Amino acid sequence: MSGCPYFEKRHLLFKNKPPTAEEEEDASQAGVNKASKGGIIYGEYLQLDKIVSAQVLQSELKGNKIHDEHLFIVTHQAYELWFKQILWELDSVRHIFITGCVRDERNMLKVNNRIHRIVMIFKLLVDQFSVLETMTALDFFDFREYLAPASGFQSLQFRILENKIGVPDNLRVPYNRRHYRDNFKGHESEILLATEQEPTLLKLVEEWLERTPGLEVDGFNFWERFEINIFDGLNKEKEKIEAMEDSEDKEEMMLELIKQKELFTSLFDEKRHDHLLSKGERRLSYKALQGALMIYFYREEPRFQVPFQLLTSLMDIDTLMTKWRYNHVCMVHRMIGSKAGTGGSSGYHYLRSTVSDRYKVFVDLFNLATFLVPRHWVPKLNPNIHKFLYMAECCDSSYCSSEDSD
Amino acid sequence: MSGCPYFEKRHLLFKNKPPTAEEEEDASQAGVNKASKGGIIYGEYLQLDKIVSAQVLQSELKGNKIHDEHLFIVTHQAYELWFKQILWELDSVRHIFITGCVRDERNMLKVNNRIHRIVMIFKLLVDQFSVLETMTALDFFDFREYLAPASGFQSLQFRILENKIGVPDNLRVPYNRRHYRDNFKGHESEILLATEQEPTLLKLVEEWLERTPGLEVDGFNFWERFEINIFDGLNKEKEKIEAMEDSEDKEEMMLELIKQKELFTSLFDEKRHDHLLSKGERRLSYKALQGALMIYFYREEPRFQVPFQLLTSLMDIDTLMTKWRYNHVCMVHRMIGSKAGTGGSSGYHYLRSTVSDRYKVFVDLFNLATFLVPRHWVPKLNPNIHKFLYMAECCDSSYCSSEDSD
Amino acid sequence: MSGCPYFEKRHLLFKNKPPTAEEEEDASQAGVNKASKGGIIYGEYLQLDKIVSAQVLQSELKGNKIHDEHLFIVTHQAYELWFKQILWELDSVRHIFITGCVRDERNMLKVNNRIHRIVMIFKLLVDQFSVLETMTALDFFDFREYLAPASGFQSLQFRILENKIGVPDNLRVPYNRRHYRDNFKGHESEILLATEQEPTLLKLVEEWLERTPGLEVDGFNFWERFEINIFDGLNKEKEKIEAMEDSEDKEEMMLELIKQKELFTSLFDEKRHDHLLSKGERRLSYKALQGALMIYFYREEPRFQVPFQLLTSLMDIDTLMTKWRYNHVCMVHRMIGSKAGTGGSSGYHYLRSTVSDRYKVFVDLFNLATFLVPRHWVPKLNPNIHKFLYMAECCDSSYCSSEDSD
Amino acid sequence: MSGCPYFEKRHLLFKNKPPTAEEEEDASQAGVNKASKGGIIYGEYLQLDKIVSAQVLQSELKGNKIHDEHLFIVTHQAYELWFKQILWELDSVRHIFITGCVRDERNMLKVNNRIHRIVMIFKLLVDQFSVLETMTALDFFDFREYLAPASGFQSLQFRILENKIGVPDNLRVPYNRRHYRDNFKGHESEILLATEQEPTLLKLVEEWLERTPGLEVDGFNFWERFEINIFDGLNKEKEKIEAMEDSEDKEEMMLELIKQKELFTSLFDEKRHDHLLSKGERRLSYKALQGALMIYFYREEPRFQVPFQLLTSLMDIDTLMTKWRYNHVCMVHRMIGSKAGTGGSSGYHYLRSTVSDRYKVFVDLFNLATFLVPRHWVPKLNPNIHKFLYMAECCDSSYCSSEDSD
User: Fold this and answer.
1) Mean of the pLDDT values across residues B212-226?
2) What does the entry comment about cofactor binding (chains A, B, C, D) (predicted)?
3) Which of B62, B190, C134, C334 has the highest local Cβ count within 10 Å?
């Protein structure tokens, strides 16, 4: 940006890495080189020759230059730039999980910040529609024909992004009656297939949640205690209601109680969970769900504060992706109307169908809100005994603490 | 964007330009080509190979890859992409003014929309800081040294933008005690000099304002009538005050009246105007100022509705550029502190000094608020006589109505 | 806001209304009163005693004060404040239409600005969710029980707003299996019924569109010319395709052509239009649709520039209301999960169902994008003959130009 | 908001507080009451009768109703509503600090979330200007006179907010040449004086920073180690430079080194710190500054992750308040111009002068960026020895964990 002096002379002095023996030797010479008047300047650093020369208007090539096509190109390029940044953050976070470095809890700040950065980028991307919306349907119509058969559906980075977060192949809405991958060329299709086979953010978070301290059956045993408390609580409620005089209210409350009992019975039914899992209605393993609920209830305990923030940010990503999809739908409605000329499924309706909970990867985290209970039903912790919530783990390997861990 | 079917088959049928005779002949063949399965696809169209391969981390080249440098690069590239779009819009608007096509009032919608689009882009750019702000001073410190001597000051596009809007050379704050152009390499410095010599948006708007219908001395003669009304009004106020019983209030009001008289006397003093102009405290010619004030007061008249919107949007640009500068200052404060290591003027203080009314190109439009008067002091229009406000001009030249006019 | 000197002494001098004879008489005295040290101060002016004392926490009343309930109350009060402002603008615009003052085209700026202000308020309201989203599901759970049976569904102002814009009674999704009005108390229900019977913004815009200059059969006769041009154009396309050599492409193009012909045949079929109207799939009369399309195609003509902006802003309102609904759904998903405890339709699903094109009042304006054609198919205007696009109408009645017209 | 079912029947069953013996007794009866069809409804809950009846137009009272005054009132009321919410959060955070509950690190999440909520509210308030900016200077002029002598300067809540965060009395810019408090009436002036005497957020954060674990001289002794490392590092740099061949670069680097040495010498000079403190150029005690720097460098250690976030959010508040002030300045410039009619300091210039680092309460946190050093100069921690960064403190008093602690 203009006028920001990234560099100030003092930096000539500092090197961020401790010098090796060899470097120490070379000191004087290195000094000379670093301070040489050369060095990189702004435009080269950012490769602006590439960036600002990449706007070629198809309408101009076809001899009918349409002013607004430039906006169309720049907007999409800005989206793709940011998609690249999101992938950069996402890959670094996945790497921390995959290498096991997440076990060193010092890395939680990094994980959390990078996920939060993805959130902030998506917020920007949602707002960014306001710029493209300055183009009217009539302006768009003037150059639309020249774009055939290009389609935003073909954004490789966006599909990779969905795959790496964890949108499952089998829950995707078909596009033009074809599997989503079949809309890509051979090479790109292979890349997509490969990303489907990598561990998704969903999967990695699941594994991490399964290790939530406090779930151990021979330890705090949260899950069993929680089950006992809930059904004790419900039974006490039942007794209270039964003691009431007969009335419409009493009846209503009793009906409600029965439903609550069913709800919680279902929560502790592992088979039912696995059934919902197989249908895609749940996405996290039974154990991971327990971990998430535990983090919810004990979020104020020192070791759970940052994990709780992380779960919140994951929901933010889902929410913002879905808002992005919805803003996209709204823009398309305005640009091309809701009815395609004819029989074929219109772009509008395809997009509309992707604004769905099927595309919410962390939908289980939202739905846990169904299983909240009063604070006094949550199993009590005693800080004198349950030290695990106060003592973070670290593993002092240079591997995980070094920047290479991204 | 994902899933937006830019193209639908019907467009095979439509051609946005009426066919030439030759084209008619080639019809069948053209048809074949157009529908050929080839055509451009998304990634090629947007030249994504260039866009998403342009992120080379200096820290990585120097053997110390720092994760956050990627964000730094992408953010700046996104800024430059949008600067290019702003220049695209700005040049098209300036072209409409330079060619005289603005006299065909059908072009006012185009002018207005494109200026408004610049406003919307600047809004986005102000918001975009929220993403870079996810990087802390400590993260930045880790790779800052590798950027030397690159500096955001070197953004050529931003300086061109300032020049084309109309930031005057002589009001610029020096950077590193040097003229702003001397911070650029020879080739770039020449480009900057050239843009200084082109007609600025300010200049073009000034000329257009000078032609505001209603200013003609042998016609409606707004300016003279306005002057008469004001001093009549002030005199009547004076009489009222004099008729009051003596009191502190009376004295205060009389003092205030005298000041008002001075203020308006100054408004009608062309020499004083030219003096302020020479000091950079005013920027528009005396005549243009009259036109602007006329548009303000008669903004509801049909021919002035869109011109009034235009003046508002020009203030929006000024305001948003200054907010952009201020947000930039805030970010730099956080990144490198307010004190440079040493004697030299710090980046923070340089930037701080550019958040100034000196950089507001259309400052006169803001300051007109000082000269508002009650509605009944404004010279009355009679639609039966003053037809000029109801009849727009057009010039039916294909030159101006064609898309080439951008 | 802090430090803004609304008032400066000079205003003691000015009165915005020309004085009546009586007032002239009273001049000295009035002067005294106005300048009296009394006058209103900030807190009284804004009635802050009411505003900042209206936060009573139910949880506190029930002896279990929950911190976050305060945020919940303030956020909803802020929404209601802005709803009131929207109604204020909406009523003033409707008044201009109802009184016929819209025929004086000087009032178009006012109409346009006020509709645009509604747009800006809705943008703020969409963003405002980000504040309430700092409350987690668990924080909400802590005081949710105390709110029964209050429900956001009961926002009277929001329902009035929907009615006055033109959400039709019969397209509303039932809530709790009941007509929406039956969820309100008697008095409120009557207010709602009354607002249903007032002319809606949709209806008023429809009437205005029906009067679009250029539609007259004995004048420019846009509609007939347009129909002729389209079918001429399509026939020429047909001939071109028939001249092609046989191929898969040729077949495809011919199929496409047939569909296009059907599409446009339907556009000119008034009976079909009325059928769609009766089903709620179209909302504007046949004549109004013609006016809208005319404004679309001739948007650059002086008299149509501001009307075109108005149509765009009406779509903005629809889009933003629907985004507001969608953001609301997202928040509710996070707060209470997607599954209600029991059989009854959950709040989440009710809200989800209102994010629908049924609730888009100006849906026809979006769908006109389906009927765009190449510029050279649009009937040509000749400014020498078709003066009507250059001469605005006014009606110099003091009634319409005075502020009372709001 | 519309359609959000705050309440679902299941809540009839749950009570968030464990029942007392007495309550148990009353169970049946309580049941009846709770489920009674009565209960509070939306409009009553939000006291909408007060909220939406508090818009009284002065212009209307004076017989000259001006449409836009309603927007002016509603916008300011919305600001005041949100100021109240900010004060609510601020007081709760200050309470946690004042009572010492902050020592129980479980409360850090609460502190952090509430400070973050203030950040989100300020973001909204910055955006909120976009609505008021739909009013032009001319619209404002029409009713400005009726507001005298009300002024936004008189916003009591905003001044209280500044005081409670820690804007010091003696650094305030005088308004109308008077002490800020003298612009308020007696009663309000007393409230302001009282808030000046309460512990500010700045003071409370300072005390908390002074207790940062690791600062103890007989423990990790960060400060002494840090000083040693820095001067060791600088000396090594010096040797390297001296070993270089004579050149311009060498000279430059040596000069730079000397400046760096001065800079860091000043950092470790307590007297100089106290001198800057007395002038208002620094705001935190010497010890607190050490704590802040320690949190900066060891931000990834488990116990410092949330404290680091907190420091970042405190800078966010400063930044956003200053952006709010700047946006306010921009709006005032547009509304009333930069020049008051006459000699007196104009509102514009007063506001301009408050956009200053003097009003940044946590300015020291920004300026710490000046004292960053390469990672290998930071004293090394050994997790096997320095356990304190992994073991959070709690104090299991019901006092601090209960909701009463807000």
Assistant:
1) 95
2) Binds 1 heme group per subunit.
3) C334
